[in-house]
Design goal:
The chain has 482 residues and is of the alpha/beta class. It folds into three domains: 4-256 and 302-313, Rossmann fold; 321-387; 393-481, Orthogonal Bundle (Arc Repressor Mutant, subunit A). Helices cover 44% and strands 15% of the residues. Helix 5 (109-124) packs parallel to helix 7, helix 15 (327-342) crosses helix 17 (375-387) and helix 17 runs parallel beside helix 19. It is elongated, with a radius of gyration of 28 Å. It starts with a strand and ends with a strand. Pfam families: DUF87 (PF01935).
Amino acid sequence: MTANITIGHETSGKEVLFDIEELLATRLLVQGNSGSGKSHLLRRLLEESAGLVQQVVIDPEGDFPSLADEFGHVVIDGSAYSPAEIEALARRIREHRASVVLDLDGLEVEQQIRCAAQFLTALFDSPREHWYPVLVVVDEAQMFAPAVAGEIAEDTRRMTLSAMTNLMCRGRKRGLAGVVATQRLAKLAKNVAAEASNFLMGRTFLDIDMIRAADLLGMERRSAERIRELERGHFLALGPAITRLPLAVKIGPVKTGLKARAEGLMAMPETAPEDMAELLTKNLASEAREAVPPPPAPPAPRVDEIAETIARAEERQVEAPAERADTTTVASRIAELITELSAEEGIAFQSSSAQYQTFLTRCRRERLIGPMPDMQAFRRRFAIAGSGLDTLDEELQKRIMQLASAVDDDLLAPFLVIAKASHTGETQVDESALARAYGTSSPGRIRRLLDHLEKQGLIVVREDFGGDRTVMVPGLESQATG
């Protein structure tokens, strides 16, 4: 299954596609000097993929809160919360799969760095059951992963480097796909930049940055001048999620963001010099005496209030259909999707969180609005469908599920395969079906599985001198041999 978006066009007008699923596995590095269109590129990527994947944006300049109006992102003002609350919000964001913008514009530089570092670390340290795929976009990444020590405190630098390194180097297994954007490659820590496999290089002028960009794109160094000549909004692309050979891309239009300022010069005011001097100096002393501090900012919403907003964010991001299907139809289609998913080749070898994410993605694509099974309920229904237990009559299903009530969730699917075979009196347990249900191809793991279930008193295994195994489930009349 692929999920392609159009990031822009070649000079010939041909669309340039971006594979979001490949991006989740390979990460992205964007470089461009101020005015090159770097933020425009990030906005295009976020807008086009908003309906496909959860998004978290670290925004030090306040450029991305407008995503909330069009796509339902939750905007979190980093200056309004304590460090502990920021970490709690990060954990809830992973749990509820909300797309958010962490707006750091109201903080000083070092505060921005510490806030982002604690937020990223909390995302990284979230519980395993919340490791859903998410794009983590970090703008002005040279601030958060500096190549050399700057003016910030050493403990702050170590904290932020650790957070960014975890995101780019170890985040993939946790579902975190880093997208880092920087004005200068030379200022970005090399161990952070080196983990990206996809590159979009915009206009830059310094030789050191051009040479590094050319090296990453696999271009000869004498061709690096091409990067200096790029127009605004044009990038050189390379990577498995975009293209196997360097390709010039003009980034497409966006829907959100500040209205474009008028380009070019503006006529100067025609006020006479003496009148202008009076405008500037009249009653200046009294105005200075009467100056009052700006009104205090409104109190920030409590964490529990914003958590409720986060919990509903996913529903807001899904475009509501003209007519909602009735609950019965939705429930029936959900059951069909779980059955279809359980029958797919290789799905059992994925983690439960990856299976659940695939299921939710398909529900969103079909615009299924209604109560969804949670992670635990999905795992049980997936195990039932994968074992074929749903083909038996309801009374027998209830009986087997009562016997399975003491079985751990991760062992439920293979136990149900054994129980079904035991009840139907098959001559042997289908070891390929058992291996598929358990998500393994190792005979050793199958043996250890049977030993574990027997020690738990859930099955009885007898093996004769010929090596054939008889597997029985106490409480079911028939038995199966293997």
